[in-house]
Design brief:
296 residues, mainly beta, 4-stranded antiparallel beta sheet, 1 helix
């Protein structure tokens, strides 16, 4: 196994949301607080970026072109070629400075966990364009992943320090039977806080752990820790599988909240890392299949 710094110091604040776009062989990711969306081609080592009009919580390619972005409190469509942003949905603020972040959240994680607990919600966007609220009382929405049979959805609310699972109906999109898979309260404090995650073809979860500089692999059936990877940045935020064979693990990191002493000790903070030689593969990342050409 090898860990390399693939895109050095690319994000100035909150790098996250990596998504491997199979159709173009590129990695898309965000700097949420800098309002930047990045696209990187590893073959020619070319990176381009655009700045949008609000904080960005997520980015997902669309089958019909462009990208779905969680932009502030909106779900919007962004056309990279024209630079056009189309708002599809906007959720109420409920008096809080919340934003989309794989769902909505009510605050930020800074140098200590700091967020407005239990004011966010978990949503899904159907292929018919309907926005559905599934759960309230969310603090910091993060990692999402599905089992290979699409009957289980895995989810992280960082504020709870838990990885949870739902029974998932792929036809209706309904969620039920919410349950704990991994409880970080049962693990040593130095393991950090669960943030973004991905899943491999063996059904194991790879969880980026904020404040510890680690990505940890768990068996969701037993909650057992299987493997651990350490990075030269304490603020690892999310991960995804990519590359031609989907056997490379890309990991984003954040500089937000890092003091001078930490940055001196971890000068690669804010970089995108790549892990090779894991001996496992991921599945092709999800693409939004609905129409996004006009307001919904």
């Amino acid at each position: 196994m090898s860990v390399t710094i693939e895109i050095p110091n690319v994000t100035r604040q909150l790098g996250e949301g990596p998504h491997w776009e199979d159709s173009t062989g590129t990695l898309v990711f965000i700097d949420s607080l800098e309002k930047q969306l990045f696209k990187w081609n590893p073959v020619i080592n070319d990176i381009s970026s655009v700045k949008l009009d609000g904080t960005i919580g997520s980015v997902v390619p669309c089958r019909n072109g462009g990208y779905l972005v969680g932009l502030g409190r909106t779900i919007s469509h962004f056309d990279w070629e024209t630079g056009t942003t189309t708002k599809l949905h906007e959720v109420d603020s409920n008096g809080f400075d919340d934003r989309f972040n794989d769902g909505t959240m009510g605050g930020q994680i800074d140098d200590t966990p700091s967020f407005e607990p239990n004011v966010g919600s978990l949503y899904s966007l159907d292929t018919n364009g309907k926005l559905v609220k599934h759960y309230n009382n969310i603090s910091v929405s993060n990692g999402l992943a599905w089992s290979s049979d699409e009957q289980t959805m895995f989810y992280i609310d960082t504020g709870t320090r838990k990885v949870q699972a739902f029974t998932y109906d792929v036809t209706s999109g309904e969620l039920s039977e919410r349950r704990d898979v991994v409880n970080f309260h049962d693990l040593p404090d130095e393991i950090g806080w669960p943030d973004g995650m991905t899943i491999d073809t063996d059904g194991h979860l790879w969880v980026a752990c904020f404040f510890s500089g680690k990505v940890i692999c768990f068996d969701p059936n037993t909650g057992k820790k299987l493997r651990e990877i350490t990075f030269p940045s304490l603020r690892t935020t999310s991960c995804c599988f990519g590359g031609e064979n989907l056997d490379e693990l890309y990991v984003t990191s954040a500089t937000m909240g890092a003091k001078e002493e930490e940055l001196k000790g971890y000068p690669s903070t804010g970089s995108v890392f790549k892990v090779t030689g894991l001996g496992v593969k991921g599945r092709p990342a999800n693409v939004y299949l609905g129409a996004t050409t006009s307001k919904i």
